[in-house]
Amino acid sequence: MIRYVRIVRTFVTAEMQTELAYRLNFVLGILEMVLVIGTSIGAVLVLFTQTSSLNGWSLPQMIALTGVYYLVQGGVNLVFSPSFEKLMEHVRQGTLDFTLLKPANTQFLVSTRHFRLVRLVDFLFGMGVVVVGLLMLGDAVTPWSALAFLVTLACGIACVYTLLLTLVTLAFWFVRVDNILAIFWAFTDAGRFPIDLYPGWLRLTLATIVPIGIAVTVPAEAISGRMSLETFAAMLAGTAFSVTFASWFWRRGLRSYTGASA
Amino acid sequence: MSMIAIYRALLLAGFQQMAQYRIQSLLWMLFAIIRPVIFLAAWVAVASSQGGSVSGYTVGDFAAYYVILTFVSQLSMAWNSHEFEWEVNQGRLSAKLLRPLHPLHYAVVDNIVFKLTTLPVLGLILIAVSITFGARFATQPWHVLAFIPSVILASALLFIFGWIVASLAFWATRMNTANTLWQRAAFVFAGQIAPIGLMPVWLQALSYALPFWYMQGAPTEILRGAVTPERAGLIIAGQAAWLAVCYVGFRLIWRRGVRAYSAVGA
After folding, report:
1. pLDDT tens column, B106-119
2. A261 has a chain B CB within 8 A of its CB
3. CB neighbours of A126 closer than 8 A, spacing ≥ 6?
4. Which among A31, A32, A197 is the nearest to B42, CB-wise?
5. ipTM confidence
6. Based on the structure, what is the number of domains in chain A?
7. Is B38 a domain residue?
8. Do A51 and B198 touch (CB under 8 A)?
């Protein structure tokens, strides 16, 4: 375990050294995120000029949900999506050989190898927005709901991670999977509103094929005290299943990998 | 060689290229549909919670608005800013600048090809959305007639505006922030969050003053049949005014920009 923490630290340090050469990117990244989050919250405020509840969600709860949306996206874009982009390239070019030879868990290495540190900004700003939502909610936050929030948030990010890993694993057979990933990214936008808002077919797509909806909605439900015990249990079970499945699928895919010289 | 012959040759090449990337163009369409459907769903929820309508907008009105908005966005969209930034960054623009044709024409052809190839599929999807949400169009025949100049002006405006933003790449080689600024301004002011009539008054005023609403929201309101003839005339005049301003601005910026262009890597 400590060994894996050290590995991640090495990866982050390596990434930091490259990124520090482009410090202006960080400043611009912050500026862009202020724009993006500011306008997203603006959209929520416009909706709430016409109503006091959106399908049962109050304004503070919706603001917390917006924060969770950027938390999840930031978390995924910070490490998994840059790592998987590189992984697809390695599979295509056959350079995954070098990773396979390393004496550590391959799934771990390919998932955490690259960081897009600018996206840390999204994560922090998302956190800030959640806090604003919580302050507006007042005394509704209990230790139980805070704990449930952290657990479901981790589960949510894990679910999105496993979906991405499964999609990327398809590259072992189909080589080019950029298009499948593009479909995933197209649907992530829908995560900015609670999934119960959408018509049946879209809700089903979001909840099962593209778990981003669940990954955002359930933690937001948890922190605003609207989550039922069944949802919590389903979230834990679903995450356990998808982590097991993705890991199995990854090992299965790896067996089909033919390498650079084959 | 006449301009018509040039365009025929370019269009032919464009369609052949497009035929190679069928899946990609369908995917881009998915991006175009998802966001309007998201906000449509949100407004439907708001309307339902208020007993079926908000400030005079029924569920059917929202559906009609967002279906037409998607249609208009697809008709008027232009992605030159991204492509152009790439060409400047790679120094690829040099070759194009040497040709006797202004780079603008290649972009025009790319746009026409993309739209003609994607619209049939988009049309089917929009019909499905209209039926699902029970869209209610109040369109009169004259609305359709007024829509034609309005959507042409909107496309031209968006196109020229995109080139103004893209021209900034002559000076700044990293354009991400400018693009984000533009996208978010369009998100707020073009009518994506809500039909302009539902925005807070100060946001309405800003939307009418800035060019973004004239790129998407304006033709949408006309085709939806939500405007009187006088208002339609006023809207089209506003679009024409912004187009003139942007065109002059673009000419100025382009001329200075080409001089500043150093062809990265040259």
Report:
1. 877 887 888 888 88
2. no
3. A37, A67, A68, A69, A70, A71, A72, A73, A74
4. A197
5. 0.85
6. 1
7. yes
8. no
